[in-house]
Structure formats: structure tokens, C-alpha cells
Amino acid sequence: MSPTHARITAVDTYDIRFPTSRELDGSDAMNPDPDYSAAYVVLRTDAGDGLEGHGFTFTIGRGNDVQVAAVQSLRHHVIGRDIDRLCADPGTLNRDLVGDSQLRWLGPEKGVMHMAIGAVVNAVWDLAAKRARKPLWQLLADAPPEWLVAQVDFRYIADALSPEEALDLLRTGRKGAAGRAAALRERGFPGYTTSPGWLGYSDEKLTRLARQAVAEGFTQIKLKVGADLADDVRRCRTAREAIGPGIRMAIDANQRWNVGEAVEWTRALAEFDPYWVEEPTSPDDVLGHAAIRAAVAPVKVATGEHVQNRIVFKQLLQAGAIDVLQIDAARVGGVNENLAILLLAAKFGVPVCPHAGGVGLCELVQHLSMFDYVALSGTTEDRVIEYVDHLHEHFIDPVVMRGGHYTAPTAPGFSATMRAESVTEYTYPDGTFWAADLASDKGAAA
Predict the structure, then answer these.
(1) Catalytic residue check, 355
(2) Cβ contacts of 69-73, under 8 Å, gap ≥ 24
(3) Which of 224, 300, 390, 394 is catalytic?
(4) What is the CATH number of domain 177-419?
């Protein structure tokens, strides 16, 4: 079959899990024992060029099988698609997936189904960027503004952002893009690190990792808080003493508090000069975030990693509820919806500082921030991408940090392809690691 008529022939899915809970990596007040996991999808074709589309969504262990099943439920929308048409207009598939009326009932546009849509859509963008021989950030930055606007679903957000306004933002954002792209390739995009701040770490480990972060060039770190106030006071004091006054320190409650608690707790930690308080309450509570923001200023309020769609982001911005907007590459419906959210943030003048970490979230979201800098917001001021030093070795094109900055990816694609040996080893429950681990558990129980 000629490449002109090449089609998607398979949507393969994998339940991939890593035993991070055993070292308390990723531990916080709401999630004390996460096993970082990915519902991983591979789009295969009959094009004969060896290119595949890779995508995933992130979970923290149990339930990853549910997420994989949700991805599998979308296969019939994807298999048989003409690759040229699909890569020329990923928004068509995005609309079809979101518009499946029976599956939409399980959302709509939220939760497990929406994350599954994001995994599939991201895999399409990975394939499109590989076929264009560009890293995704460059594919987006080079794209005509009219085409980018056509990729965005303006339903439910047109009262806050019209297609015409989006087009104006993108046309303005392109001015000077070539110079910013050159600067990005030279110095990268600023990051901050959460690696010192996991709740399960000892004070000694916190101090050592915080000092290491500063030595590596990071100008911001983040600490998990929210389990015990006295403990948080001690840990924040320890961290501030380790990094000194000139380094920003954010705190992250991972949705632990009621609105009143969030205000009281944040005020109690204010002496340590926290830059922002993240996820202080339910991610769905728009007015709660607005109340907290008004009460804890000048500490900033940040949220977004669990915000389920562009509509809730719209309301957070309309209500003046956040100072910092945190996109997540794998929570909403893929690149298309994240384009909408980036445009909303640009319209309201709110900086975007993405959530990352987990399995591959750093690899993905760097592309979105780099596009935003080069071709939309035009600045890195008060913008940083979260960085966590976990599990990058499992990716073909892993994140590279230099001087506290994300190095701009040069390989074609979305940096989403996992190493074949990692898939073989960590697929649950039959991968080599888990088969041996589960067998040893049965032996111990006997």
C-alpha cells in the first residue's frame, strides 16, 4: 500500500507501573503511596516508514487498568483513519472522540474518559510531529495561526475567548518568534524542582536535595505540605535555611484543605516566604480558590493539574481565582485542549507554570511551554516548568536539564516514546519485574 493511502492499523495499549511507593517518591498529604503509572498507547500504521504515534496518561497505580480500558474503548474511532488526513487535522479526531455520545455520558469532558481521549490525541500529535520531522514545540510554533485556531474547540469558552481573539493573540505572538526559538535552543526554558519536597523524605534528605537543586541552577523548589502543621513549619524552616532567601519556595497541599483551613495554614507558613500555594482545596471549587487568593496575598495561588477541562480553567480565570495556571499534558483532552487553555491564559494575562513529574509528564509538557514562549506569550518571566528527577531513563528522548533549564528537544515527535525494554519489564502484571515481584509475594505469603 502506498504511503498516500496509509492508515492506522492498530491501537495498542499497555498498563505500565513503577513501584515508586517503596521509596516514598511522589508522596504527599493526599497521596502517601503513589506507584507512578502510565496508560500507554501506541498507534501503528501500514505506511512502511517505521513511524508510530506514542501517547499516555498518568495515574498513580491501582486504576491504571481502568484507564487502559478507557483508551481501548476509543479504538474504533482511530483504526482505519487515513494518516495524512489525521496528521493534517488532529482536531477532527479530537472532536469525534469528545463527541461520542454514549462515551460522553461518562464525562462529559472529564475524568477517566477525557484522560483516555488525551492519551490518544497526544499520540496523534506525536505521529504528526515525527512525520513532519520536527519536535512538537517547533511544529506548533511554525504552524499558521489560522490552522492552530482551527484545532481549538471554542464550545463553552467563546464567552471568554472568541476565535477572532485567539487569532489575534497568535498573530501577535508570532512576532519575533524566530529570535525566541534561537534563544530557546541556546539557553532552554526555566524549570523548578519538587524533588527535595516529597512529604515522606527526612529532613536530612530534604536539606541535601534542596542544596543540590540550588547548586544545579534551580531558582525555585517546591515542598509538599498539608498533613501536619507543626511538621510543615519545621520542614519549611529547614528548606528555607538550606536554600537561603534568594530562591523561591512554593508549597503544595494537593487539595488537602477546606477553604478556611487553606487560609489559616498558608498564613501560618507565610513567615517562610512561600511564592505560591498550590492546590489549596478542591480543583473544582472556583469560588473557594478566589476566596483563598484574596485572603493569603501576597502569597500566590496556583492550580491546574487536576482541573478537568478548559471550561473550569475559563471560570478560574474569569473569577480572578488564580495567580498561576498549571496545565497538565495528560489530564485534559490532549494538545488541542491545552492550546485552548494556553490561549485563555494569554487572554487573561496569567502566567502558565505546568505540572510535571510522574511518568513522562516532564517529557510532554516541555513542548507546550516552549510553544507558548516562542509563538504565544513571548516571555519566560515568572514562568517555570516543574521538574522531578524520576523515571526519565525509560524514554527514548528524555528530558535534559542544564543549569536549571529544560533543554529544547530536537528529536521529531512529542518525546513520548518509551523504551521497549521498559515496556517489557514494567507492564502490569505480566512484565518481568511485576511477574517476579508478585511471585515473591505469593511465596512469602505461603
Answers:
(1) yes
(2) 70/39, 70/112, 70/113, 70/115, 70/116, 71/11, 71/13, 71/39, 71/41, 71/116, 71/119, 71/120, 72/11, 72/13, 73/103, 73/113, 73/116
(3) 224
(4) 3.20.20.120
